[in-house]
Predict the 3D structure of the following.
Amino acid sequence: MKKILLIILFSVNTFLIAAQPDYLDQLIERYRIENGFKTTVKINIDVPGIVAPQKTVFILLENGKKPKIKGEGLVLLPKKGFIGQFSEILEIPVHWIFLERKNDFDFYKLVSLDPKSDWVTADVKLLISEPRIEELNIATRKAGEFNVKHEYIQMNYPVKSEINFETDRFNLPLKFMGKSDFSSVKDSTGKVSGKIILEFEEIEVF
Amino acid sequence: MVILVALIFWGLKSQGESALDYALQTLNRDFLVSGNILNGYLAIYVILNTLWIHIPILIVIVTADLFSSELESGTIRLILTRPLGRSYYLMSKYISSIIFVIIFMTIWAIISVLPAMLLFGKGDLIVIFEGLQIVEEKELFTKFFNAFLFAILGMSTFAVFSVSVSVFTRRSLNAILVTLGFLVISTLLQTMAPTIFKGWESFLITHHLAKWQFLFYSNPANSEVLSSTIWLVIFSAVCILASLFRFRKLKITE
């Protein structure tokens, strides 16, 4: 009886660990970036302690090269939650752990098996019918946790991404360029919650 | 003035990039910053910070001597032998000091703006004041122009104050020392105001002189700038009235 129970438990466990979705290939194909991409993106930054005007910039990113950014004035481009995130998550060795299925969505927890990857775990919400990534909650090694919600219209890639994250309060040297006071932007833990909205106008993947 | 501005340019050119990298390290952790941060507008903004101490000192050295030098050398007796009211004479000194400030500040602006633009180019301005603000280039001309006008008002107030002090002290050196002492104490109290001397700021001239910074807010605090403008005008008026009262009874033959 014990042996049977152990076999059942082992089987269930194996099934859960290897619980990658059967539409994974479609998902990888959807977000595949062979050599790079170019896009025009409108950036809205809503981070306590930072006042930045809305910017529309052209970005050309080729694999292994520095991104080329064309836009008026100073541009703050978020380091996390950009288009490249899909291939970063889907094209490295990961453990897929099935969490639940709710209505049209599957929920998975991904654990990175690549020691070089910046992220450690990712909770993914997938729309089964397309299939596509609707929402990601990523825990990174250096940059903390961040949540990304995507909106799609017709293209493979989202037309709008909302990135929510928690970061350390901005700690700029006092009197560096005048008087500084960050007391109004701190919370009790010294962390601030920020939001960045990216609206993509044209995405060309090559 | 030229040496001061040249030193700032030299410092920014040689160490500006690394200083900015240091200052913006927390920003660089979350964002890829693209564009010319160390631009001419930032250089001018850094130069504007000389309004705290350096420019007032340079102005006071001249304006505190305007009245008392005539008293010390005795030329005031010669001038007042003419049919000229004392109030008229003193007011001409105040007007001269204000004209001097306007010319000084205009030259200061020219020797700051032109080389800054040639050396560092254009771009948006990063202002570190109650957080980090990026001010778009298209808004900067108006903001700098308004800051320049406010600086003229602030420095004129300081010039008026130094002339008034010289009416009371009668000696140029004493007037310069008293005015600069006032500036140093005011700056010191303002530095300690957030902790020890809470609520004292509004009585300090340096607090009001520094309000040009508010003009660089994304949502400018116009009421703050307006209240400081009124404060500076009233302070100047009080200084002029007090010195007029004093000058009427002043023995110029001593």
User: Anything to note?
Assistant: Chain A touches chain B through 40 residues (CB under 8 Å). The first strand of chain A starts at residue 36 and ends at 46. Residues 2-17 of chain A form the longest helix (16 residues). The mean pLDDT of chain A is 78.
